[in-house]
Design a protein that fits this description.
Layout lengths: L2 H24 L4 H28 L11 H19 L4 H20 L15 H15 L9 H20 L7 H26 L2
Length: 206
């Protein structure tokens, strides 16, 4: 099965999901929009996993066919679990964060699996600086809020792993190149951006 139809289907579902979340925000009492939003949201990660499998089998644009990485599929599974848990009920928030945390750990293991630490350029260590700044800012911004008090241990672990993700993607450049390396870095930065905005929206009502 070619990867293009899988990508087109994913973009269609993601677009519909965005449409219904906008409609739901405009009219919170419209339960139909909430239900449709959840249905399409639950489809996103399985479709992304299908797209990943087809890319590995057949390639995609400038990305050649490659070996399927079980850890990447496991990461997508945990991301799907996190999406489902966060949508089911606020009481499942810690479990949802834990599911996302496990997914990010799988990404870290995969990205760092082939790094040659003995021959690593000092350039890669420069990423420790923005990593530390991000972690300090998020802790300073969120941990002073009373709503985060019972979740601080989980949030700290999640933020620490999340801040390591772009660094691991950059370290991947030591053994990988091309479009896949660029997409990994961009994807990890989008993870940081989206999860940071979500945290501020939930705890600071931004």
């Amino acid at each position: 099965m070619p990867s293009w139809p899988c990508l087109a289907l994913y973009i269609l579902v993601a677009s519909l999901d965005c449409f219904f979340v906008i409609k739901r925000s405009a009219d919170p009492r419209a339960t139909l929009y909430s239900r449709l939003f959840r249905i399409f949201k639950y489809l996103l990660m399985p479709l992304l996993a299908l797209f990943y499998v087809t890319v590995c089998l057949t390639g995609f644009a400038v990305i050649p066919a490659q070996k399927l990485r079980p850890l990447i599929l496991l990461s997508l599974f945990f991301a799907w679990g996190g999406d489902c848990l966060l949508e089911l009920s606020p009481k499942y928030f810690p479990a949802g964060v834990l599911s996302f945390l496990l997914g990010h750990i799988c990404y870290l293991i995969q990205f760092l699996s082939k790094v040659s630490w003995t021959n690593l350029s000092p350039f890669y260590l420069l990423w420790v600086i923005p990593l530390g700044v991000f972690l300090w800012y998020m802790i300073r911004s969120l941990f002073t809020l009373p709503d985060t008090r019972p979740l601080r241990s989980v949030l700290f672990a999640y933020l620490a792993v999340l801040s390591l993700l772009p660094t691991a993607a950059v370290l991947r450049l030591s053994y990988a190149s091309g479009a896949s390396a660029v997409f990994c870095i961009l994807g990890s930065l989008l993870f940081v951006l989206s999860d940071s905005l979500l945290a501020f929206r939930m705890f600071k009502n931004v």
